[in-house]
Amino acid sequence: MWILVPIAYFGNKWGSPTFSVMSNGLFIKNGSAYSFNTLLTPDGQLSQTRYDEVGLAYAGAQYLWCLFFGTALTIWYFLDLQVHSVRRVHLLLRMDGPFRGPPNIGGGEVDVHGQTRA
């Protein structure tokens, strides 16, 4: 992160010199703050004409990299959790695993619930 942000800033990627480097805010194309409140009508709907005047929202390099890495790490975490949980549950539920039920001391037939039948 600390290497990528200066590369993006000094390499003029995404228009970074126009926007504040370490800001988490959004900007309009000229670098001033993006005001979402001006885009709304009094009843809370989006004013399309005002949006066409203001334009898209832009972000600085640090904010974009944080969004990218945060999303990537969140996805990786949940995928990794799923892969390893499935493996652990499979090992715990196997019939020859460590939790296969009480030992069959009486030598009788064992039913589905681990109970020994005489």
Main beta-sheet strand count, sense and barrel state: 2 strands, antiparallel
Strand element count: 4
In whole angstroms, the N-to-C terminal distance is 67 Å
Low-confidence parts lasting 5 or more residues at pLDDT below 50? none
The percent range for strand residues is 5-15%
3D shape: elongated
The radius of gyration is 29 Å
Q: Which class do the helix and strand fractions yield?
A: mainly alpha
- Mean pLDDT metric: 79
- What is the number of helical segments per DSSP (H or I, 4+ residues)? 3
Helix content: 25-40%
Largest beta sheet: what is the strand line-up? 1-2
Strand/helix succession:
HEHEHEE
Family: Belongs to the oligopeptide OPT transporter family.
Keywords: Membrane, Transmembrane, Transmembrane helix, Transport
GO molecular function: oligopeptide transmembrane transporter activity
Main location: membrane
What's the SSE blueprint?
Blueprint: H1 4-10, E1 26-27, H2 48-54, E2 58-59, H3 61-93, E3 109-110, E4 116-117
Antiparallel strand pairs: 1-2, 3-4
What does this entry show, briefly?
With 118 residues, the protein is mostly helical. It has 3 helices and 4 strands.
Fill in the keyword field for this structure.
two-stranded antiparallel sheet, elongated, two-stranded antiparallel ribbon, 118 residues, 3 helices
Structure description:
Keywords: Membrane, Transmembrane, Transmembrane helix, Transport. InterPro entries: OPT. The chain crosses the membrane at residues 56-79. The protein is mainly α and 118 residues long. It is 40% helix and 7% strand. The protein is built from three helices and four strands, in the order H-E-H-E-H-E-E. It has a two-stranded antiparallel sheet. It has a two-stranded antiparallel sheet with strand order 3-4. The chain is elongated. The N and C termini lie far apart (67 Å). The model has no long low-confidence stretch (mean pLDDT 79).
